[in-house]
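Lab notebook, bench 4. Continuing the backlog of folding jobs that were queued last week. Each job is logged with the same field layout so the records can be merged later without manual cleanup. Today's entry covers Pentacotripeptide-repeat region of PRORP domain-containing protein, a 338-residue chain. Filled in by technician R.K.

JOB TYPE: sequence-to-structure
TARGET: Pentacotripeptide-repeat region of PRORP domain-containing protein
LENGTH: 338
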Amino acid sequence: MRHDVAPPEATGHHHRLLVTLARHGRFAAVATLFSTARCTTRALNSLLAALCSSPAFLRVAPSVLLRAAPHAAPDATTFRILTSALCRAQRPTAAVDLLRCMPGLLLDPDQRHCRAVLASLCRCAPARDALAFLDDMRRWGVSPSRSDHHAVLDALLREAMVAEAYEVVAKQMDADGARPGLPEFERALRAFRENGSFDAVEEAFDEMLLRGLVPGARVYDVYVGALCDKGDLAGARRMLGCMERAGCPPGVTTFGVVVAGCVAAGDMDAAREVAREVVRRGLRWDAPALSELVGALRGGGHLARARGLLLEVLCDGCAARLDASAFEQLIGGRRSVV
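JOB STATUS: finished
OUTPUT FIELD FOLLOWS
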């Protein structure tokens, strides 16, 4: 028997002792024993896993890896333990740097691991870092899923990176086999509208139609609202007819969007005409619809100008449940009505 190789029983004892010392924070003793014992990758990973429970983990781990280097090569489990700890410590960019070392060691990052790091990037790092990590995943053969794209989309929109978010929706999702649907395009449309990028709203809406996606009322409301925001009231009113022909007749909410746009533009005659069209179509300006309209007018600073119009709406076609007292409460600032 060769005397430079420890018997299996001794290796097992060293393994258990290292883990026990690490769990009790005896890091100096761990370092001493680790440098004298014959280290294995299994022992290394067990030790790192035990150290994960300690705040000192990130300070101690590099020295542990250096001491193990001559005998125990890190494997995929080693990287999973280290990067998971870095993500918990809200240092996902450091976790990404570690993952980028794996191909050089002929190790492949796995799908679940990459997605966990991406989720941490989306929560704790700049959105550009998360966007760049999608490219890393593709290079490693990990195709980003729909949920991965949604997480990156959330991060980009949170930082008002609207053009980059639309690039994900219009191009990257297709390339990764996660075809975008109405929810993704609706988010892009809303973001462009809020950003005042009205030409981009038009582009995104046209792209959606070219893909064969059929807009619902929510999407039309965003598009019609964007037309009003840029002052194209004629286009917004034409779109009401387009909705009818497309099999999605405008509801009272959509009419409210156009009414608010006309008031904001100072065209009270047009606003009255659109409001009366609601009644002619047999729709009702009920409490929820009026609440939304009042909210839009108040948000634009046009509520006082529209008071007379709102009173006319109340008399001409509002649901009976909304009496004069409730109406006064509504325009006075209370958002909920009974």
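OBSERVATION: Residues 115 and 148 are 7 Å apart (CA to CA).
SIGNED: R.K.
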